[in-house]
C-alpha cells in the first residue's frame, strides 16, 4: 500500500476518482491537455460501462487508468468473492474498452485492511492511497482546495481529486489551472502514479481475478 512517492525527486501526481462522466471529466481533460499534464484516473466500472468513449479519451490523452471498484462499495465490508467481482468486473470492462488491464487499485474511501491488501497483492495489484485530500467531494471552494494543497503537498505527493460525483466538483475544475501553475512555479514535475513509483500500470493480459 502506497500513500506517496519518493521524496528525493520534485515530482507530484494528480489523481481523479469516481469517473468517467460527461460533465466534469471532459473539462478536466481539456485543462490537462492545454497544460500538458499527465494524470491518473481511478475509474468506477459502472461509469466505464456508461461512458466507454470517455475512458478511451482518457487513455488516448496519455493518462494512466486505475481500478476504483465497480460501484464504489466499502470493500472491507464485503466477502472476498464480492470484492473479487468488484475489481474483476471493472478490469474486464476497462480491458474490453482500451485493451489494458490495470494493476493500480484504489479502494473506495481508502478502506482497506491487511487481509485485503495481501489478497490483492497476490494478484499483482498495488494499492494506491493519497497524501493530500483536497476534499473537493465535500464542497470545498477553489480557495480552500488551493490552501490545502499548498499546506500539505511536498515531493512525492499524490493528490486526491474527483472527476465525477456532483455539482460541487466545479471547484475542482476552477482551481485546476492555478493549481498546476502553482506547482510548476515551485519547480515540480507532474507524473502519473506509475511513473512516480516506477511500477507497471498495466498487465499485458486481463488479471486473473474471479469474475
Automatic annotation (TrEMBL):
InterPro entries: Glyco_hydro/deAcase_b/a-brl, NODB_dom, Polysacc_deacetylase_ArnD. Keywords: Hydrolase, Metal-binding. Transmembrane segments: none annotated. One of its GO terms (cellular component) is membrane. The keyword Translocase does not apply. It comes from the Bacteria. Gene3D superfamilies: Glycoside hydrolase/deacetylase. Residues 10-191 form the NodB homology domain. GO terms for molecular function: hydrolase activity, acting on carbon-nitrogen (but not peptide) bonds; metal ion binding. Pfam families: Polysacc_deac_1 (PF01522). This is Polysaccharide deacetylase family protein. It comes from Thermoactinomyces daqus.
